[in-house]
Amino acid sequence: NERADAWIPLEQEKRQAINADLQATVVELLELFHDAKQSHWNLRGPLYFPLHENLQEYADTYRKFADLLAERQLQIGIPTDGRTSTIVETANLPKFPGGFLSDRQVLDIMTERIFTIAKRVRSRVESTAKNGDEVTSNKFQDLSYELDKQVWQFRVHMQ
Amino acid sequence: NERADAWIPLEQEKRQAINADLQATVVELLELFHDAKQSHWNLRGPLYFPLHENLQEYADTYRKFADLLAERQLQIGIPTDGRTSTIVETANLPKFPGGFLSDRQVLDIMTERIFTIAKRVRSRVESTAKNGDEVTSNKFQDLSYELDKQVWQFRVHMQ
Amino acid sequence: NERADAWIPLEQEKRQAINADLQATVVELLELFHDAKQSHWNLRGPLYFPLHENLQEYADTYRKFADLLAERQLQIGIPTDGRTSTIVETANLPKFPGGFLSDRQVLDIMTERIFTIAKRVRSRVESTAKNGDEVTSNKFQDLSYELDKQVWQFRVHMQ
Amino acid sequence: NERADAWIPLEQEKRQAINADLQATVVELLELFHDAKQSHWNLRGPLYFPLHENLQEYADTYRKFADLLAERQLQIGIPTDGRTSTIVETANLPKFPGGFLSDRQVLDIMTERIFTIAKRVRSRVESTAKNGDEVTSNKFQDLSYELDKQVWQFRVHMQ
Amino acid sequence: NERADAWIPLEQEKRQAINADLQATVVELLELFHDAKQSHWNLRGPLYFPLHENLQEYADTYRKFADLLAERQLQIGIPTDGRTSTIVETANLPKFPGGFLSDRQVLDIMTERIFTIAKRVRSRVESTAKNGDEVTSNKFQDLSYELDKQVWQFRVHMQ
Amino acid sequence: NERADAWIPLEQEKRQAINADLQATVVELLELFHDAKQSHWNLRGPLYFPLHENLQEYADTYRKFADLLAERQLQIGIPTDGRTSTIVETANLPKFPGGFLSDRQVLDIMTERIFTIAKRVRSRVESTAKNGDEVTSNKFQDLSYELDKQVWQFRVHMQ
Amino acid sequence: NERADAWIPLEQEKRQAINADLQATVVELLELFHDAKQSHWNLRGPLYFPLHENLQEYADTYRKFADLLAERQLQIGIPTDGRTSTIVETANLPKFPGGFLSDRQVLDIMTERIFTIAKRVRSRVESTAKNGDEVTSNKFQDLSYELDKQVWQFRVHMQ
Amino acid sequence: NERADAWIPLEQEKRQAINADLQATVVELLELFHDAKQSHWNLRGPLYFPLHENLQEYADTYRKFADLLAERQLQIGIPTDGRTSTIVETANLPKFPGGFLSDRQVLDIMTERIFTIAKRVRSRVESTAKNGDEVTSNKFQDLSYELDKQVWQFRVHMQ
Amino acid sequence: NERADAWIPLEQEKRQAINADLQATVVELLELFHDAKQSHWNLRGPLYFPLHENLQEYADTYRKFADLLAERQLQIGIPTDGRTSTIVETANLPKFPGGFLSDRQVLDIMTERIFTIAKRVRSRVESTAKNGDEVTSNKFQDLSYELDKQVWQFRVHMQ
Amino acid sequence: NERADAWIPLEQEKRQAINADLQATVVELLELFHDAKQSHWNLRGPLYFPLHENLQEYADTYRKFADLLAERQLQIGIPTDGRTSTIVETANLPKFPGGFLSDRQVLDIMTERIFTIAKRVRSRVESTAKNGDEVTSNKFQDLSYELDKQVWQFRVHMQ
Amino acid sequence: NERADAWIPLEQEKRQAINADLQATVVELLELFHDAKQSHWNLRGPLYFPLHENLQEYADTYRKFADLLAERQLQIGIPTDGRTSTIVETANLPKFPGGFLSDRQVLDIMTERIFTIAKRVRSRVESTAKNGDEVTSNKFQDLSYELDKQVWQFRVHMQ
Amino acid sequence: NERADAWIPLEQEKRQAINADLQATVVELLELFHDAKQSHWNLRGPLYFPLHENLQEYADTYRKFADLLAERQLQIGIPTDGRTSTIVETANLPKFPGGFLSDRQVLDIMTERIFTIAKRVRSRVESTAKNGDEVTSNKFQDLSYELDKQVWQFRVHMQ
Ligand SMILES: [Fe+3]
Ligand SMILES: [Fe+3]
Ligand SMILES: [Fe+3]
Ligand SMILES: [Fe+3]
Ligand SMILES: [Fe+3]
Ligand SMILES: [Fe+3]
Ligand SMILES: [Fe+3]
Ligand SMILES: [Fe+3]
Ligand SMILES: [Fe+3]
Ligand SMILES: [Fe+3]
Ligand SMILES: [Fe+3]
Ligand SMILES: [Fe+3]
Ligand SMILES: [Mg+2]
Ligand SMILES: [Mg+2]
Ligand SMILES: [Mg+2]
Ligand SMILES: [Mg+2]
Ligand SMILES: [Mg+2]
Ligand SMILES: [Mg+2]
Ligand SMILES: [Mg+2]
Ligand SMILES: [Mg+2]
Ligand SMILES: [Mg+2]
Ligand SMILES: [Mg+2]
Ligand SMILES: [Mg+2]
Ligand SMILES: [Mg+2]
User: Fold this and answer.
1) pLDDT band per the 50, 70, 90 thresholds, residue H1
2) Opening angle at CA F152, ends F147 and F156, nearest 5
3) Cα separations (Å) of I133 from A69, A145, C60, I80?
4) Is any Cβ of chain C less than 8 angstroms from the Cβ of H49?
5) Left, alpha or beta for E87 (phi > 0: left; psi -120 to 50: alpha)?
């Protein structure tokens, strides 16, 4: 109803732009969640144990930030869309390969995918600030640190 | 390699049938995971707090059983497929509705979907046993109890 | 209402038989709960401390399994009956003796009673499976292990 | 034996009166324990989740105070009687209804029953003090606060 | 003394403006703390349990952020003023109603009050940044997310 | 409604007198809560660390007892009044000083204020018992021990 | 100093009588603490394990109540005296026997000693109330329950 | 004695067959426990850390299941035999190699040994069910899942 | 290798400036860590206990932020330099005094040193933002709050 | 009996000398336990909070080492003597002063007493080793570190 | 390789003697581990509960010290040998009896066996010190205290 | 002052020699702490995850033993010197290399450095005992076991 609609703290003119960045990130994190689980499961090779364990921790990170950002969408009055079909259609990443994966393959594929999202999130740190929502930008900053850390930890395996 | 391939405890002739039941369930649980999160987020109405909280717990249950069953696929020598596109294509459930959902709607939609999967899992308790893998059947029994419990807890809201 | 009634995962023709085994066990476990507490309280003799402590743990086991099985009744669409009068009328065990009890008496009486229920539960493991509900049978199997363990631990005091 | 009988700290002439109040309360709390569990299980309606959860907590409260007070009976040299038949015969409450219960019904029935016991316990706070056992009165005071709190929390649902 | 006064890391010319935003927020959070407790206590109606519980959590949030921000005032060399008379005089919110409150009333009144403060805090995220203290602005951003979340969770009860 | 109004365990004629003592104490404890926080924040001098830490613990004690006693008011059917304006108008303590406070000043002011309330609570231990509510008196006794302990711990700093 | 001396919440004329009961109990509990430890150490016989363990728990109970009651002495403005020589001179119990002790001896000696103190504490519940300090009486009531429970648990070994 | 001997819940004619499967498994698990510890200790090579850690976890799994199954033997009235000489004589596995072991060697040897036991346990899931003890079969199912998981996790290192 | 080098989310042209601020802070925090430990150990005087304890907590804060910021350097593709010789050469603080330190001296020296670093960190909050890395600026903001708090807590000892 | 007497691992000729050192230490630690509690209670002055808290921790240390060493006496076949009269007669320390104690006095008296025992324990580290029981000497070494640490922490208050 | 072989901190000439003591103890502790478990399982008689529980704790102690000492062998460059056949051949204790064991028998047999190992360990405290490895001797001292304690606790059951 | 100086339990003539060993070890451990952190950060290669994690644990071990030994210096009356310049000047190890480090390099460099300190600590176990302080020697023995374990765990990666 109208009364309840008036109870949204963020200024109305800012909502669409901020929501666009949030919605995109929620979907990408949910895709990364499944990518990390898929790697956690189908992984093979001498690096099995440490990668199996850290991929689970990465997956948990994606899942928790997706919740944090999706609930930010609700706070600004807009429903989130984290449906599986929406993930497939809008995550904008190459289809993840099926079947077994060697540890080298997992490192290569996952580093590339996390790196791609890390770049996008970084640009959203700026766009949300420019669009006048430092609160959302602040959450993207926290996420950005985590993604950059994951990229580092996987990248150095190959350096 | 061949040597490693020989190290799979389940008899080879049983693997395909058992895997079929596992693969179907993994995908359905991952779909339910997103359905529950989608409801957790977009929910509105006087039952918000208890439903928001219990939907999160249901989502955690789906996620943990998906891991348990996907790793059973690996144990029997077959890669799992939990990719987002696979979920969309094979979960065999109507597309989840977008946008806000009233508490009544959530109860109705989710009860129907969990009930559908609960029925399928129940039949897999039997098929895996008939196909000679009591170990997998046992895990489906644990899952079946949980799904039947969720259906009960949501169903009685409307009785 | 009818719609909600259709949401019961167990096939309708199986429900009465499975419920009969569940209802009987719930009532027996609630009776054993009070028997164990009664012994925990009125106990005397040199074995006081270890029996007092273990009877409490046994009582907790009965209470938790009663909850698990009663909620299985609800899952299959039938109300449970754990009322005190129902326990008295249907637990089908001799009336528990009043007043102080020596440690020897407690060991003797309780071993006999737990043994009696353990036998009944064992037969329900089979009947529920035969009646087509492996999920319920599985929970009876877990309970059966616990009851058999208690019988062993009390029995060896007298051997 | 006589020697041991002499080791009861409460003066002998006070014991029967104090025990009468304790025995009555133990039996009533055990009845309430089953009433709360029965409601926890057979409950239906939109208030299912919060009532299901709080009824379990109430049941735990009854169970723990029953133990505390029954052990006070033993301290003053008298066996407690918490047998199921004793509960049925002496709890002095109307028979609890069988079958499903709507949330409204549960609130109504349980508030009435807890209120009834709360009144009795309150009068025992006074009678035990008058009969010269402030230690027992003190435990009744703690219980009284808890029962009065439960009555409040259920009553306001209907106000 | 002068020496100690020189040990304040924030540049002197910025202190008054930053302190004004901090002082106003501390007082408003302490008022909200009492509003939430008052609602937690005097609440009536079918939503009693979930609202009673969440209002306590909201109250804890206000209390902890008040401490965090008041200690920021001290860090920048200025005493905080969280006295009860100061709250009454400067929180700049309508007087909270006395007596019992229905769940509907609590949702309505509290959403309005939290929304009002959420708007003010949002503007302080900007003013503190513009006045050159990103550290304080960062804390306001964290608080802003929490207040916006509370407004959402209460607002949707009425949508 | 009338039916619900009948569900108040404390005899009606006792309620006003008991409530008067409870209401006065709730308000005083909420005032002390803010006094302790104000001291926790604006404190200076060599005793900073231990006083800062213990004032926080004292504040937590006041807050928890205020909740316990306010909920006792509700139990006896009367709304509590913990609004900020009510605290200011009825706590009946001198206005707390603003600005920085030396450790000596804090010890002096707080000992005086806690001592004043400790005396009042002590007299309410008696009045509530005399007015026939030992349950409330019992809670005042627990609070009285805590306040007397705090007065001791602060007083000895100056002896 | 005089100012600080005026900050003692208990009325001056009551202090000596209350302190006498507290001081006697502190000393007796410290004696029981050593008696229980002496038994915990020098015990022999088939009941070694449960008695060794429970004597340690009893000793912990004595130690914690001694602290609680000694600090009550300080609250009412009087130093406590828990010095070893004071224990020996004023605990008013027979000298504890040296050397090894059979389990039977420990049960006999300790039951007698705890029973003796339990009787004294019981009378102090009354005397402190009669002397006008319900707060202290309340703590003695809690202690009384614990001592009566210990006497029961040891006494029944011999019944 | 005879009376106690009658208190064994499992039907007498089933006991020998079930015990044979339990006894064999207990001995094999105790052998695997030492194999895993031997590998945990003498391991060398680049995979040291993750294998050292996981071998300890595997060893803990063997130890806990050995306890669970040995106690099942006692429940059915037959003593277990977990003596070191019995392990050596009846575990029916090649003698474990002495001296240092490379990570490759450990993976190879342990996978082979766990695989061997996993196959045997799998066949006992069936034989115990066929011999009429679903309770024991159920415990073998749980163990079977764990052993199959270990074989998978080691096998994929070499794939 | 080049491929891996391309996987650094922060734009290349920003890296040197951001790294300069991070490297300087890491080194300063490691120096402060040793300063705080040196004070924790060699401290004397009546404020020993609270300062000893809080200096350890401050040292833990420095250590944890040094890890967080050093790992940010790695994320942006540059090795950190936390070697002891680098600390000595580049922390840019006066040499810490050797030997015993009175509590007054510790307060004076440490406040001065923390204040110096707090000022530098504050300026880096701005420079990193100006140089285009809000993610790093955000971490400096968190650190800045902590350092400003420490300066306050030590400073007020002397006011 | 003789058989059991033969089961004492320490060589018989060593027992008396080792026991003498153990017995003396047990008694001294029990005396220090009461000294620390006496100080914890009767303490006054500006250092009240940190001393009150640390004296409790010291008392806990004495109590735990007394248990460890008394049980060593039992291990070497000799009963311990920790009776209150034995403490008074053999702890060989000046009588502890009664009444209130300023913080200065506590520091002075306790440092002197702990220092005295620390010296004795240090000499027993050597005598037990010389008398051939490195196991006991090892426990004295652990105790010696703790006592030396306490002396340091109290001594520096006065330096 | 040679380089790595040079990285063994213990002087080469000491290694064989120290290893001999370590290897013997590891094997004996592993034998005791199985003896304690065998007793834990096959035990009968009135002391069942406390012995069953304490034998499990003793078994855990043997297992943990075996790990600590086996890893000391590795530290000094020599592989450990904890294989089951090695235990049987070198533990140098009589074969443990099969079948049920009364509580008396368990006490008798286990006391004798632990006593035997306790004596050997005691002599190794000295031999390792004489052979120049105080670090290993120190670990034997810790073990010696534990074994002597166990002998005491079992021995006194029969005294 | 002189009085306090007399309160040092270790005999004066022993202090300088013992302190020399302690001071050297404190400085070396602080250097190793930074070496381990530097490796934890700049590490690259396939062994990244397990080495990154274990290097952090090693660093924590160095830090905690440095605290334990530095506080031993204070106990014997001498200030410790853990200043960064002192570490650089007296740790007596080659300068640690800057920049990225492959996993092989880290294993090689760190094994060499820990081995070097392990040898020195081992000699101090003896020198402190010879110089008459078994208490300090005992702490060096504990440290020696930890360092020897670390050398083993790194060394075997290359064997
Ligand atoms: Fe969420
Ligand atoms: Fe997993
Ligand atoms: Fe339940
Ligand atoms: Fe109990
Ligand atoms: Fe604070
Ligand atoms: Fe509350
Ligand atoms: Fe205390
Ligand atoms: Fe067991
Ligand atoms: Fe790190
Ligand atoms: Fe002990
Ligand atoms: Fe290990
Ligand atoms: Fe320290
Ligand atoms: Mg099963
Ligand atoms: Mg009273
Ligand atoms: Mg009370
Ligand atoms: Mg920010
Ligand atoms: Mg009372
Ligand atoms: Mg089955
Ligand atoms: Mg199962
Ligand atoms: Mg910003
Ligand atoms: Mg932030
Ligand atoms: Mg030694
Ligand atoms: Mg040691
Ligand atoms: Mg030693």
Assistant:
1) confident
2) 155
3) 21, 11, 57, 18
4) no
5) alpha
Return the C-alpha torsion angle A123, A124, A125, A127, nearest 10.
90
Chain D hits for C85, CB-CB cut-off 8 Å, are 88, 95
Distances (CA, A) of C94 to C28, C116, C124, K58, K94: 12, 11, 21, 41, 49
CB contact L159 to H (< 8 Å):
yes
Interface check for L85 against chain I (CB to CB < 8 A): the answer is yes
Q: What is the Å distance from ligand 12's center to I55 Cα?
A: 9
**Residues 117 through 136 of chain H touching chain B, CB cutoff 8 Å:** 118-119, 122, 125-126, 129
What is the structure's pLDDT at B123?
A: 98
Q: Tokens for D1?
A: 């034996």
**Which of L7, L73, L74, L139 should we substitute to test contact with J (largest number of J Cβ atoms within 10 Å)?**
L7
Considering CB atoms only, which of D145, D158, D159 is closest to F135?
D145
- Taking residues H70-93, what's their average pLDDT? 98
Q: Spell out the domains of chain D, with CATH numbers in brackets.
A: 11-158 (1.20.1260.10)
Backbone torsions φ then ψ of H101, nearest 5 degrees: -135, 130
How far apart, in whole angstroms, are the C-alpha atoms of residue B68 and residue B75?
Answer: 11
Quick one: pLDDT band at residue I7, thresholds 50, 70, 90? very high
Alpha-carbon span A36 to A28, nearest angstrom: 12
The band of D3, judged by pLDDT with boundaries at 50, 70 and 90, is confident
Count CB pairs under 8 A between chains H and L. Answer: 22
pLDDT in tens, chain G (159 residues): 788 889 999 999 999 999 999 999 999 999 999 999 999 999 999 999 999 999 999 999 999 999 999 999 999 999 999 999 999 999 999 999 999 999 999 999 999 999 999 999 999 999 999 999 999 999 999 999 999 999 999 999 998
Quote the ligand 21 centre to A137 CA distance (angstroms). Answer: 10
Contact J42, J101 (CB under 8 A): yes
Beta carbons within 8 Å of C22's beta carbon, 6+ residues apart: C69, C70, C72, C73, C80, C136
Q: Is K57 on the interface with H (CB under 8 A)?
A: no
Nearest to K43 among C50, C51, C156 (CB): C156
- Is 80 exceeded by the pLDDT of residue H100? yes
Residue J42 CB: number of other CB atoms within 10 A?
24
The pLDDT assigned to J4 comes to 83
Question: pLDDT averaged over chain K?
Answer: 97
Q: How confident is the model at residue D2 (pLDDT cuts 50, 70, 90)?
A: confident
Based on its alpha-carbon atoms, the radius of gyration of chain K, rounded to whole angstroms, reads 17
Mean pLDDT of J74-97: 98
Q: Which residues contact L132 (CB under 8 A, 6 or more apart)?
A: L11, L14
- CB contacts of D147 in chain F (<8 Å) are 9
Which of G45, G49, G100 minimises the CB distance to K50? Answer: G49
Tell me whether D47 touches chain E (CB under 8 Å).
Answer: yes
3-state SS assignment for residue K129: helix
Cβ neighbours of residue K66 under 8 Å, at least 6 residues apart?
K25, K26, K29, K30, K33, K82
* Cα(B62)–Cα(B47) distance, integer angstroms: 22
K47 in contact with chain G, both atoms CB, cutoff 8 A: yes
Residue J44's beta-bridge partner residues? J102
CB H82 within 8 A of CB H33: no
- Reading the block at residue L13, the tokens are 């003539």
